[in-house]
Amino acid sequence: MDSMQSNNLINNLRTSLDTNVIKQNYLDHLNLSLGKDFKNSTPWDKFYSLSLVIRDRIIKKWHETQQKYYKNDKTKRVHYLSIEFLIGRLLYNNILNLQIEDEIKNAMNELNISLEELAEIEPDAGLGNGGLGRLAACFLDSIATLGIPGYGYGLRYEYGIFKQIFEDGFQKELPDDWLKNGYPWEIERKDRAVKVKFYGRSEPYKDNNGHLRFRWVDTYDILAVPYDIPIVGYGNNVVNTLRLWSSKSINDFDFDNFQKGNYIKASESKIISESISKVLYPNDAFYAGRELRIKQEYFFVSASIQDIIRRFKAQFGTNFKLFPEKNVIQLNDTHPALAIPELMRILLDEELLSWEEAWEITKKTFAYTNHTVMPEALEKWEVHLFEKLLPRHLEILYEINSRFLNNVSKFYPNDINKIRNLSIFEEGSVKQVRMANLSIIGSFSVNGVSKLHTEILKNKVFKDFYDIWPEKFNNKTNGITQRRWLLQCNPELSNLITKHIGNKWIIDLDELKKLEKYADDKEFLNNFHNVKQKNKIRLSNYIYKTLNIKVDPESIFDVQVKRLHEYKRQLLNAMHIIYLYLKLKDDPNYDIVPRTFIFGAKAAPGYKMAKLIIKLINSIAEVINNDTTVNKKLKVVFIPNYNVSLAEIIIPAANVSEQISTAGKEASGTGNMKFALNGALTIGTLDGANIEIKECVGEENIFIFGLTAEQVQRLKESRLYNPYEIYLKNETIRKILDLINSDYFSKGNSELFSDIFQSLLFGINGGYPDEYMLLADFDSYKTKHKEIDKLYRQTFKWNKKALLNVARVGMFSSDRTIKEYAEDIWKVEKI
Ligand code: 26V
Predict the structure, then answer these.
(1) CATH of span 72-88+124-477+820-826
(2) Residues bearing N6-(pyridoxal phosphate)lysine (predicted)?
(3) Nearest CA to ligand 1 atom 1
(4) Is the beta carbon of 688 within 6 A of some atom in ligand 1?
């Protein structure tokens, strides 16, 4: 062999797709990386070794992609800053995106190892709560698949979203120690660690030109160490980076204390420093104002901005005027909004630019996405906490605000109300920093996540800003990646689709339109039906295995999976179940198609009402499932620990998708899209993206009920909404609520659910009665469910509608969403 052949051989050793080479690599990793041999290897060892085999096939593409970005002067980089990335598992996802499934399967088969079983070993990277975090993960997949130079930046939480178990039907939280055995997809980059400062004070001084400048001194510094996860594009050799920061103490010991012999105290500060990236806050849309949370926000934002500037300087030196041409930073909600004053601080205090120059650059760099209109989710920080932690940033905010309000008062002389609404600072008994106002003022783009949501932002929540800057506001309706949410989670349906229309849908979801021509094709619909049945059996097996409940795969699988929140109205669903139950108790021959109601939902640990609703649903389940007069027709299953991996089993098995939020409250929803793409029919309100799903699939292929957002608002404003009156007039509703309020579901504890009853009829803790208008929508909800029952009996018609849903939801691919961000906001092209 000459040296060229031998070089080729060496180069191919870890990238080849030859079955024998893959096998050998696998055995080598077991042996050389993990120190195990084939015989004594555990399932974890096998998972880990195979992941390293896959990683070997990623690394070269990763370097090549990054080199390409670096060498190209035209590269404009997108930075997606998000305090959450709800990634889920990566093994199968990476195999699919590399398009090496057959090769890996062959090699594993020859070793007598099932790829599917191995993939199940991987812990979910659960670094997020729900919609916002999962959206970030879908976006990373689309950015890489579209070949856009993109970077995700976030926090490497040691503990992700808690693990949920039920004890006597009550939610209990257990820590999610997902890193305990190591994680094959991350690479620590100690060489890229940066310092992040806290506390201290701002010190004025005169620079060489006699200008007044400031420096941030006497700070307490913490090390931010990046861990990189490769993000593999689908079939395009692109590998982008998700960079997650971990906090580390700069010194393991505080030497002053150490010298004084105070050994324990000497290591205290290490613990404090390293607690920053310890745990994900498990609140979904409830702001609590905790010091550790703002530390998390500033920590990952400061490290990220430093990293972005370092990369810019390596390519373009200190020519900062170029910065916004070469960089854009998307803020995923307000959680990373401190990036705005942080960029200002670095440009002013470290790069010594003038205020005008720095501000020009900053406001051309940032774009802000809002994800909720729930007032309790809006982030505000107490000024005195802010000042203690980030004194220099507070000065910068005062300056931004005063210049901004100066301009505003030229437009609206003497309009105190406008000034009050627009200010970054909220006056009151405790003065606060409003992160949303900061985000709007510091960005060139503000977007909502569905058409309705964006209209609500423009006309209500941020109206005063919209009046000043209408051109800043735009809509970007959310999307989901079909690589995970069809190709990966529903291989049977994927194969059926590909067999008929080819596989271009994997990178162009509008291709699914071609399925419309099978809408009346009996044979196709029959196969389509069989796929759904197989997926239902797969889920039934999971339910039997984990909960010991037998469900009938022939029954309608009616599914609501999402975080538990009053506005999402899981309680409305529960009321409808009680309604059916009472009907059946009244008349055991009452004719309904058997139904299995499936729930999955975590409640924020401090959210009492949400936890009580979980207990209620579990209690209803226990009564119904054990009542032989009804349990042939009704079953209720609450699957614990709903997460990305469970979603991948549950969603493909659904017949009915519950998207029933109070109109005007759900910014977009993304679960709604996943269900429709997998052939479920939606029962939903005219809220968030449901409206756009209806426009796409056609109103005859979706079950819409309830008040519109406008009707909700008008009814609220009129103060005429009186749930107690409905309760008195409507016997059905009365019976349901009385049953909840009795000891029927609570095994004799008649007080247990009284807060639910009270909150619906009279309001609790100063809240409105039936704040989310369940009673107003109940009758129309129940009527739509009756239509669902009727339609399901007509298998052909049902399947046709389900297929038309699949065929017509192509626009909800996150590829479409990302193309819109890229064209309208980021102005980036693929390299
Ligand atoms: C907000 C907060 C507030 C402070 C405490 C911790 C915390 C954690 C997360 C959030 C964000 C909640 C907002 C959110 O997840 N919104 C969801 O975003 C989805 C993606 O745009 C959208 O589909 C859902 O409708 C929306 O509820």
Answers:
(1) 3.40.50.2000
(2) 674
(3) 285
(4) yes
